[in-house]
Amino acid sequence: MQMRAILEAKGRQVHQVAPTDTVLAAIETMADRDIGSLMVIEPSGSIVGIVTERDCLRCVAKGPAYREMPVEQITTRDIAVAEVDDDLRHVIDTMIVKRCRHVPIVEDGKLAGMISVRDVMNGRLSETRTELKSLREYIHGPSGPPG
User: Fold this and answer.
1) Is the CB of residue 107 less than 8 Å from the CB of residue 8?
2) pTM for this structure?
């Protein structure tokens, strides 16, 4: 399964913040939308990095100064990125190696969507169901097991 198929099923919307937005604003956005990460995007559209709920928690633990701190100060800049034509196995391997739960997906150099661990699990489950159906049809024929 390619990332393109996952994005078509879940949608391509990517929530984002500007580097100058405050950490508090990022926290509020993630809480309002029930998401675990935001892309940090320059007004020009270029990708700066990603800020996650874990990044925000580390910041909040240091005290109330986070309320006015710009997101760019806690942004992870060296991020894993996948292409829309990359397969699910590649993204799973990337998440394991990079120890991340969110991978931005790009198409023609532009942000096309975001894949989370949940999306990966749903994609893998879909693949497994398809494989299981094929095996059952191989064993019992397309009409199912005898009656």
Assistant:
1) no
2) 0.82
